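Hi V.,

You were right to ask for the full record rather than a summary. Here it is.
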Amino acid sequence: MSASQVLTVSTPAGQQLAPRLPTNPVDPAATNPVDPDRRPYTRRDVRLRVLVVLMVTAMPWCLPVANIAAELAAGSRAVLFVVVPVLAWILASSCELPRGVVDAEVDWIVALLGGAGIFTVIALFAGRIPTLAQLWRVELLGPVVWTAVAASVVFGIRYAIRLWDLWVFLLACASPLPFLLLSALLGGSDFALAAMSCTVATIVVFRAARRHGLLWRLAGAVTSFAVGFAASWLILVGSPFHHDAPLVSVALGAGLVPYLVTRVLPRLAAVNHGREKPAAARFPRLSPISIVATLGLSTVMFVVSSAPSPHSAPPPAADNWVAASGLRESSTFGVATGLLGPNATYTRYTASQHTTSQPWAVDVISAPTRGALDDFGKVHWYDSTEPVDYKPVELTGVGSLAVRSAHSNADTTVDPDARHWYVLTWIWRVSTGFQQINIVVNQHETGQLPDPVGVSFSQAVVDPILWIARQRPKQVSEVKPATVELAEHLARQLAAAAGIPDATEIPATPDQSASKAREVR
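Predicted structure:
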């Protein structure tokens, strides 16, 4: 301290008191300003960066979120979607803020290279097995990956890596298939959906309480599951026949309850949140150029992304179309109950009399809501030795029905005893709900029709991975014209019997049509 800055006070007797510091000392920060790139964070900085991430990722998310909202409104059983934003915020807000060195250039390089690699893998998978990719909803993986890329740029790669459990959670929940299959193992009821959702929320609560001791983490997780499932159970019991009851019960039991638990737990645990030094946390410099560049990449991703188009409303069908078609019930299967809900049924109908040896049947999958059928709309319900893709069919005489076709590869020699099939499928609406119609025809003139197998983890995960790992080329197999003509004739007859507008009534029976097709061949 200089002599000019020391103040002395003299007494009347000439005595001097101890020196006293000046009342306005010089601020060290004025002479040694903090580097803007290494200044400590504030709450305002965090909120601003969260808003930036939401802004630059809004466009890739808008179409998938709109489709999910429409599916939930239509009665989809993928009710976990409604609480994913809440659970994701719980995980993100519980993560420790980054500390250490900040290098914006490295953040950009790692984020872009990692994102480009993952996007390439997604595109290759979607092109290799398109129908299975649509069943897995791979279009939802792109926005998740892009959100991770944007977070790496805005918050830094160190903080993005700390959020690894958030990215794992979002990737696991992007596809509703694992959630629906696990719920099917529990019976597929509305209570099974609530139990699975509360289980996922319990795991999130346990991870979010990472700053507390093990006992507090276990207490919070158990409380979240017990209170959440009890609340869901009360809602389901109070309105068992309401289509929106599963959605409301999950929103309360797996959304609101876990959020409240994570807010109350820190106060009960009496954790000293000041033990972490806020000044040690660092974020990269948020420049307008980086924001504009990230927003530009987000626009490019929005343009090139391919979100599925909304489903058109199915036409109404007469309730007595089975009797009008001359069909009789042959057998029922239980594969649809666990997947589509307790009120779903799977019934097989056949003709009263067959005049041809080529087997065929009409399988009817009934569900009270359209969304439940759309959850598994890309499933081929019959066994196949390789992945099967659906293709739209331009079929005259069926009115406004959106008909698709699929078939197994009868030319393969992998399993000589396999039952090869050809199917035409569509959805229409009846007074009791919705029905997916599958006209299944054996590709051979003799043999038996395949029994429905639904979908399993082996069919949806293991078998495609092994098929891709063996690098087998996808063979293009042809279906005999007689088989196609028989299925198309059945489709026209059913459409006419159901009273579909503009459907063409054909007086000839399907068996007579098949016999004529064989004579021509």
